[in-house]
Each structure stands twice: as C-alpha cells, then as structure tokens.
Design brief:
CATH topology: Four Helix Bundle (Hemerythrin (Met), subunit A)
Distance between the termini: 35 Å
CATH class: Mainly Alpha
Shape: globular
Order of helices and strands: HHEHHEEH
CATH superfamily: dinb family like domain
Structural class: mainly alpha
Number of strands: 3
Strand order of the largest sheet: 1-2-3
Number of helices: 5
Helix content: 55-70%
Largest sheet: 3 strands, mixed
CATH architecture: Up-down Bundle
C-alpha cells in the first residue's frame, strides 16, 4: 500500500466523523466559553474546520511562512458557512493526499515566520503531528464544549452516550 492510500483511508474516516460533529455546533452560542482562558465555541469550531486546509498546505508546498501567508482565522459565520468551508477544505485535502507520491511524503516541510523556524521535518511527520493529531486534539475539545452545552454527541470511534446504544 502506498503512503497516500494509507493516509487517505484514515482521513476519509476522520473527515466524516468531524463533519458530524460540526453539524451540531450552535452558532447562536458563538461566543460561549467553558473558561475565561478557552477559545470561544465559534472560534474553536472554525479552527477544527480549517485544519483540513493544512493538509494541502503541508503536501503541496515545501514550507509555510506566516510572513508570506499571514494566518487570518475566521471571525464569524453560520453553521452553513462552517460546513461549506469545511467541505471545501476536505475536498482539497483529499486531492492533495491522493496526488502525493511516497517521495513527496519524505520531503522536508518547514513551518516558519520569516527567519524564525518553528520546525522542519518530513511531510509525513508534519501531516501526522501538525495536521491529523492537531485535529484530533481540538475535535476532542469541541466534544467537551458541546457536552457542556447539553448537545448530543455523534458517534466518532464507537457509540456515544447519545447515539448507537
């Protein structure tokens, strides 16, 4: 099995689970936070949605430089905006994974802000740690936010307390 096929199988499963979670985000609670140091629900939801964009940023480039491409997070939107944004990000990520050769996965990817290099590592490692694991971390946070708001959670890796029992 090629590297891209391995990642594509995982990404497809995780993208579907993530979408089911994002569908439940109530944007009328955009500014809600479980703690003063936490991100708001809306910002966290859009952050979860945007991480799929990073897959293409990682596989289709050899670096990401904040000086050349400033990070501008989404500031507001509807659930429909969130899902449209997410679906487009997922579509692009799938294309990038599908089109990446094993050799491309082994190329070095650099994450920087001008002269400051945060890290440089093989794309395969950046995809796993910077993209996939980052998504799982924030998706887990989002499930806690929704639980605290009494919003039923979808099944992700098996039945949730709210479905498929």
């Amino acid at each position: 099995m090629s590297i891209n096929q391995s990642f594509l199988g995982e990404f497809n499963h995780e993208a579907d689970s993530t979408r089911r979670l994002l569908e439940r985000v109530p944007m009328d609670k955009w500014n809600w936070k479980p703690h003063e140091k936490s991100m708001s629900l809306g910002k966290l939801a859009f952050h979860v949605a945007e991480i799929s964009e990073w897959v293409s940023d990682t596989l289709d480039r050899d670096e990401y430089d904040f000086v050349k491409t400033p990070y501008i997070p989404k500031e507001e939107g509807t659930t429909e905006d969130l899902l449209k944004f997410y679906d487009e990000s997922v579509k692009n990520a799938k294309t990038s994974i599908q089109n990446s050769s094993d050799e491309n996965f082994m190329k070095t990817w650099t994450f920087r802000n001008g002269e400051t290099i945060y890290f440089a590592m093989p794309k395969i490692q950046a995809l796993r740690g910077f993209c996939f694991n980052h998504l799982y971390h924030h998706r887990g946070q989002l499930t806690v936010y929704l639980r605290l708001l009494n919003i039923p959670l979808p099944s992700i890796y098996g039945p949730s307390a709210d479905e498929n029992n």
